[in-house]
Automatic annotation (TrEMBL):
Family note: In the C-terminal section; belongs to the NnrD/CARKD family. In the N-terminal section; belongs to the NnrE/AIBP family.
Keyword Isomerase: yes
Protein name: ADP-dependent (S)-NAD(P)H-hydrate dehydratase
Subunit structure: Homotetramer.
Annotated binding of AMP, by residue: 433
Listed InterPro entries: Carbohydrate_kinase_pred_CS (IPR017953), CARKD (IPR000631), Nnr (IPR030677), Ribokinase-like (IPR029056), YjeF_N_dom (IPR004443), YjeF_N_dom_sf (IPR036652)
YjeF C-terminal domain ranges (all copies): 213-503
PROSITE patterns: YJEF_C_2 (PS01050), YJEF_C_3 (PS51383), YJEF_N (PS51385)
Species per Swiss-Prot/TrEMBL record: Glutamicibacter creatinolyticus
Gene3D superfamilies per the UniProt record, alphabetical: 3.40.1190.20, YjeF N-terminal domain
Cross-referenced PANTHER family: ATP-DEPENDENT (S)-NAD(P)H-HYDRATE DEHYDRATASE (PTHR12592:SF0), ATP-DEPENDENT (S)-NAD(P)H-HYDRATE DEHYDRATASE FAMILY MEMBER (PTHR12592)
Lineage: Bacteria, Bacillati, Actinomycetota, Actinomycetes, Micrococcales
Length: 505
């Protein structure tokens, strides 16, 4: 997991380092990383037209050094100086390397003939309101440190901001790259640490990417898992669906099955159960009496291998006008892990609870959860401080809370925060959240993933990690599904088995 810092933290470290080591050396290191990324984006082909948009500060200096590297490698490197000020030693280096130097008036022409544009206009020093050049559609942009027009502290961006296909950021991940408009502008984000020492700072969050998710999933796996029977692999109890919304329950069920759950047991109204027999014949119906038996067994044998139910998924398609049924009330007061989504969020009680819970609201549902706990916030409050309000929900419900959206915030009551930006805009489709619930329910039901045996309870830390893993898997599913087709929830479910296999399932 990669730590995420605020811009204030980054600048404190930067100041100390730069005075000790000299900014020129750090700039050259940053430039080398970006010229390498440029070569990669151009598939190593020689003689390309590379245009750098150069601003007045250190970000512009980084850009000039990167262009000098590319000119030395035989590319046609052109610097468009957008300000009268520019970093003199780097400009000299570009001249010596044989690069071309032009001014703002030439920007449109230069950019239109470019194979690649390097955005070195503004980085950390950006203040809103700058006039930014446009880059023709189809010309890829490689951003240095921060896409120009994006505030690296807040994630707010100007309309004229330059979206990148790739951003190479320096020193540390900054909050604004991962929040608000940040993920919409950065493209593929990579970090070059430049040997800055952030050890004295505590990160505000941790980024979980697919590689980190793979490691987290492997943590408790054992070669002995190969001997498990279906009950030992994990039994998910699904409480979902209503006459009004029968489809959501099917989507969660199919997602859990395609995610590889050992056994799925479905508790739902008869009519929905009938649909289930057709769409998810693997699911075994679960009656009220059997829920009671499973809960009573679990009191003796909490999350051990062979439990009748090892985790719950509650909410997709439940009738929103309904009160919690007696069965749901019993599950909420049990100590078995649960993911609670959609209409389940309207009935989950606030306050202390012994149940290890993950709540998965989108922004509107988060407002509703907070209101039910006596906290009134606006949509804008949540947009501006997503981490803070997700934490308040985590505290109010004593649960891990996943705030869904282009950036996923996963927060536990103690405040530890994981962020997942490995998503796809194509995930914004009806039923996509139901698919996530099926994936997360499957992970929570598997004791080789929770690492819990016998009477112990899964910790908030592990719930947090597995929730982030589910969000990464869901994001990857969205990306794979979107590669060569439009996306609907059913399509997500179709590609899910392939993605699960990549994560060792
Ligand atoms: N610690 C690090 O991470 C390192 C940072 N370096 C680079 O240094 C950059 C920061 O450099 P600077 O502090 O010089 O800042 P920038 O290069 O981001 O900005 C330069 C200047 O532009 C001007 N400016 C900003 N917004 C404007 C607006 N709206 N209208 C008019 N003028 C405006 C300001 O005077 C600002 O200082 C980083 O983003 C990075 O690229 C690297 O050189 C080395 C290592
Ligand atoms: N613009 C977006 N970019 C990336 N992911 C998104 C975007 N919009 C929504 N998502 C993801 O899609 C899912 C939608 O979930 P939800 O709103 O509960 O849908 P539904 O209720 O229709 O199932 C969430 O996982 C969310 O993170």
């Amino acid at each position: 997991m990669i730590p995420v810092f605020s811009v204030a933290q980054v600048r404190t470290v930067e100041k100390a380092e730069i005075s000790r080591r000299g900014s020129e050396e750090l700039m050259k290191q940053a430039a080398a990383a970006v010229s390498d990324a440029a070569v990669q984006l151009l598939h190593g082909e020689p003689g390309k037209n590379i245009v750098g948009l150069i601003g007045p500060g250190n970000n512009g200096g980084d850009g000039l050094y990167a262009l000098a590297n590319l000119a030395r490698q035989g590319h046609n490197a052109t610097a468009v100086l957008l300000s009268e000020k520019s970093h003199a030693p780097a400009l000299e280096e570009l001249r010596t390397a044989g690069g071309t130097i032009t001014t703002a008036a030439d920007a449109p022409q230069a950019a239109s003939g470019a194979d690649l544009v390097i955005d070195a206009i503004y980085g950390l020093g950006y203040r809103p309101g700058a006039k930014l050049p446009t880059v023709p559609r189809g010309v890829p942009v490689l951003a240095m440190d921060v896409p120009s027009g994006l505030d690296a502290a807040t994630g707010a961006a100007d309309d004229a901001a330059l979206p990148a296909v790739r951003t190479v950021t320096f020193g540390a991940l900054k909050e604004g790259l991962l929040t608000g408009d940040g993920p919409l502008l950065t493209g593929e984000l990579s970090l070059v640490t430049l040997d800055f020492d952030f050890s004295a700072q505590s990160p505000m969050a941790w980024l979980v990417d697919p590689e980190a998710a793979g490691q987290l999933l492997d943590e408790h796996r054992s070669w002995r898992d190969a001997a498990r029977h279906k009950y030992q692999r994990g039994v998910l109890g699904l409480i979902a669906g209503s006459d009004r919304y029968p489809g959501a329950a099917q989507l969660t069920a199919r997602a859990a099955l395609n995610a590889g759950v050992g056994l799925l047991r479905s508790h739902m109204p008869d009519k929905v159960q009938a649909y289930m027999a057709a769409s998810a014949p693997e699911a075994v119906p679960l009656g009220d009496q059997e829920v009671a038996e499973a809960l009573s067994q679990s009191r003796r044998h909490l999350h051990g291998r062979g439990a009748k139910i090892s985790a719950w998924a509650i909410g997709p398609g439940l009738d929103p006008s309904g009160q919690p049924s007696e069965v749901i009330g019993k599950v909420f007061s049990s100590r078995q892990p649960a993911v609670i989504d959609a209409s389940g969020l309207e009935i989950v009680p606030a306050g202390p609870s012994e149940q290890p819970r993950v709540l998965t609201p989108h922004a509107k549902e988060l407002r509703m959860l907070l209101r039910r706990a006596g906290i009134t916030v606006t949509a804008q409050d949540i947009a501006e401080e997503p981490q803070k309000w997700t934490r308040w929900a985590a505290l109010s419900y004593n649960a891990v809370v996943l705030l869904k959206g282009p950036t996923n915030y996963i927060v536990e009551p103690g405040g530890k925060t994981l962020v997942v930006c490995h998503t796809s805009p194509k995930l914004a489709t009806a039923g996509s959240g139901d698919v996530l619930t099926g994936i997360l329910g499957t992970l929570l039901s598997d004791s080789s993933l929770t690492g819990v045996q016998g009477t112990a309870l899964v910790s908030n830390q592990r719930l947090l990690e597995l929730t982030a893993c589910a969000a990464v898997i869901h994001g990857e599913v969205g990306r794979v599904a979107a590669e060569d087709s439009t996306v609907c929830a059913t399509r997500l479910i179709e590609v899910l088995p392939r993605v699960m296999a990549r994560f060792g399932f």
